[in-house]
Amino acid sequence: MRAPDRARHRPVDAVRARAAGIAAGVLAAGLALLVVSGARGAGLGVRDGRLAPCPQTPNCVSSQAADAGHAIAPLRYAGSPDAARERLKQVVAAMPRTRLVAERDGYLHYEFTSLIFRFVDDVEFWVDDQAGLIHVRSASRVGRSDLGVNRKRVERLRERFS
Q1: Does residue 152 belong to any structural domain of this protein?
Q2: Rounded distance, CA 61 to CA 63, Å?
Q3: pTM value?
Q4: Which residue of 2, 78, 151, 157 has the fewest CB atoms within a 10 Å radius of its CB?
Q5: d(C-alpha 36, C-alpha 60), whole Å
Q6: CA-CA distance, 149 to 55, in Å (whole number)?
């Protein structure tokens, strides 16, 4: 009986090595994406009565945006600002995968996490007492397009809030 010919097994070994390299690259990219999506957005909050502006990417909507691509109507309320804020908190708490991150002086910051890929979006609200409005900003932390998720989320919140 003859010893196995090692030359015949080289192509299989090369395929295995290439597959392992690709798997390692995909794993590294996935971990990098998780780290990036986990980093809390910098520059969020209310400054001089304004939420942070949307970036140039289309994955953000804001009731204070001037351009049509990012603009969305604020939520309207009647009654006291405190009652409106509490109602809003109830509405958001009833939505899946949400977490209240900050609450102060009429400002609320939530994180919404997607079901499958675990992407995190920052959703901010600011209760404008004088105008009877709740300004809103919903933005994805990563990527360019959100396939309209942020706009749909705000409209769903609006339906449930009214």
Answers
A1: yes
A2: 7
A3: 0.76
A4: 2
A5: 17
A6: 16
pLDDT (tens digit, 9 = 90+) per residue, 34-75? Answer: 444 456 667 899 999 999 999 999 999 999 999 999 999 999
| CATH code for the domain of 126 | 3.30.310
pLDDT at 31 over 90: no
| Residue-wise DSSP of 10-64 | HHHHHHHHHHHHHHHHHHHHHHHHHHHHHSPPTT-SEETTEEPPP-SSSSEEETT
Q: Indicate left, alpha or beta for 4 from its phi (over 0: left) and psi (-120 to 50: alpha).
A: beta
Identify whether 33 is part of a domain. no
Count the domains in the chain.
Answer: 1
Reduced to 3 states (helix: H, G, I; strand: E, B; else coil), residue 153 is helix
As a whole number of angstroms, the distance between CA 118 and CA 102 comes to: 20
- 25 in a domain, yes or no? no
Q: Write out the residue range of the structural domain in which residue 137 sits.
A: 39-161
Q: Which two tokens stand for residue 31?
A: 């971990």
Answer yes or no: is 27 within a domain: no
pLDDT at 42: 74
The alpha carbon torsion through 45, 51, 52, 54 (nearest 10 deg) reads 140
